[in-house]
Hints:
The chain is mostly beta strands. It has one helix and 26 strands. A hairpin with a 6-residue loop joins β21 and β22 (224-228). The relative contact order is 0.19.
Amino acid sequence: MTIKLTNDILAVSILKHGAELASVVDLESGYEYVWQADAKYWGRHAPNLFPIVGRLQDNQYAVAEQDYAMNQHGFARDSEFDVVEVTPIAARLRLVASDATLSFYPLKFQFDVLYELVQDTLKISYIVTNTDTQEIYFSVGGHPAFNTDQAKFDEYQIAVGPKPSYLREILNGPYVDFTQETTFDATQPMALDYADYNNDAIILKLDEQPADLTLSNQNEAHGLTMHVDNAKFVGIWTPAGKAAPFIAIEPWWGVADTTDADGVLAHKYAINKLAVNDTYKGEYSIEFF
């Protein structure tokens, strides 16, 4: 099932599967912003990540001294969401705990993904509610990928602000390695270079402070600015060694395990903790031009 949102500027398509953003088209020019999931490079558009972001050590974790297995980025991206509400310019999709999810994630939750189209901007909200009788632990994030011209990849740039610099987390394999933390210079836009992604994503620590990331190409008319309200990190990624014609800009409320992680979910670096009946909200928006 595909949900359609539209106004005078943009047409948006959202899949019920994974509550995944699948298309954003400029109605005047017909330009498609969102990567169209060619499996030759990467067979997804913009998956939603829950209840983890990144990879766990050995794909394992523990809750209440019981071990569980979970693959990279969690199970929401491969789950069927319920459509709670749709209007011409907004949609709310929902995933709730079930017997199936409790078998590999033993915590009860309600996870809503809300899309709102406002003029040239698509707002995305992640709303997690604790429906359990105990505190729950989770990460959440987005993974939207945007089209670029493969032959002119190095003509694109990403400007990050408003701060002049950000802490950059470095991956050792798929895990965050604190011994390699460095500083990302944001005083100048970063030109895209496939070689920069040979070690996976560029990860910037935002510390839940507002940030803007603008993808542009001086030789093209179209671009976008992602406004991140309160994320802990943002990842910038394209698959290593494939010269793929897209770049992903990923707001994360969580991150991969560290190289020294002990495997206990409650101890996980940058994990979110939510009390019974409480709600957690992560928000970002994408302004298209």
